[in-house]
Structure formats: C-alpha cells, structure tokens
Amino acid sequence: MTVGRAARGTALAQLALLAGVLTGCSESAGDGDAKPPASTTGAATTDAEDTAEDTAEDAAQEAAKSGGGVGAAGSACELPVAFDTAEKWKAEAVESGPPADGGSEEDELAAELVEGLLRQGPFTAACEIDAKPAGNIGFIRVWTGEKGATEGDAEALLKEFVAAEGNTSEAKYSEFTSDSDVSGTEVAYLYTSEALEETKKERAFVAVTPDGPVVVHLGGLDTQEHEQMLPAYELAKRTLRTA
User: Has this prediction a pTM greater than 0.90?
Assistant: First the structure.
C-alpha cells in the first residue's frame, strides 16, 4: 500500500466516514421492544442462543483456516516474523515516504497526514491484512520497531503502543508461546472513540526479534466485528515463527 498521494488521503477520509455510518447502522433496533410473554421467553431465548452459538462456531472454524502467510521472503509483507493468515484475508505491505517526483502541496499534506497514522508509539505500520474479502470490516495490522529491544522489554513496549492509541482502558497483559516456541506478550483492552461515542474491544501481541520488536494488532469496526475476526488473530498468534 503506497502512500504519499492525495488519493490515499481521500481514501482514508472515506473509510472513516464509512465506519461512522456502518457503526450507526449496527446499533440494535430492538432495545425498546416489549418482551414476549413469560411462558415463551425462556424457550425462545434458549433457541436463539443455541442458534447464535452454532453460527459463531461455524464462522470461527471457517475464519481459522489458513489461507497463506506473511513475513517470509517473497510474501506480500516481509517481516522479522512470519505467521499464517486466515483464508480469504488479503495482505498488503504498507509503504510510506514522500510523494514521487516531489508531488503537489496537496500530495505532501496527504503524505504527512498518512505518516501520522502509520506511527503509534515506537512502532511503524508495516503490513495490513484485510478481512473484507472474508466478509468482515477490519484489519490485522503489523507494526515494527527499531532494533535493540530485548525480550524483557516486551510488556513495556506493548504498553507504549497501547498508550499511544489514546482513550484506552481495562488493559490486561499476559504471556504466550506459539506452536513454534516464539514467546511474547499479549494485551486485551478497550478503546473508546470520541467521534463515534462508542467503546470496543481490541487486542494485540508483541514479540521481540533480533531485527526489532513486532506488534500484531486486531481492531475492528466494533466489538462484534472484533470477536468475529478473533479466530484469524488467534491463528496468527498460534503460528507465529521467526521469518
């Protein structure tokens, strides 16, 4: 994904507008509906919950299937680590820099705005794995940091990443080890959007490599989208390996 062009800035603005519209549409329309008679409420609720659980389980199994990978040489995103990507998700490298051939003032302004979005604390965006082809609105984003960190710095680095996002709360940190014995630190937290006046779940993990620390982050349009995409995130964490 090459940035530094006015079109890129326009696309980002359109995406923000789309997110606001879709979030508003996703709000429940039945909050004020009357409850069914007491004699039928229990059975109806149980049937609905069973159906929802079955649907969620089927979706999770589908999303967790590997459809490729990123990180290795020759992949869409070459990174210090590699992991599997879920079926149908599309990975694209994030590139930044000044506009080609200097560009116009508008191009330069767009590039500056995008550069700000591509940095979070000590990390720079390196890869976006888009869930839209799989039917969800959101990304797994991979962020890379400078060399020199040690494994003992993992949680501190992750805390810097979360703090730089702003408006976060209830962060819970834990350790994990992938199937390939790559260890790291994970965080689950809440992010509140002031513009949308909505709080949603987010999650990220960090692993420290000789080539620098790497953060893999899962957001989502809202908490529902986030939870639907979790199997893809868990697949990435489980298959994490050195590139």
Answer: no
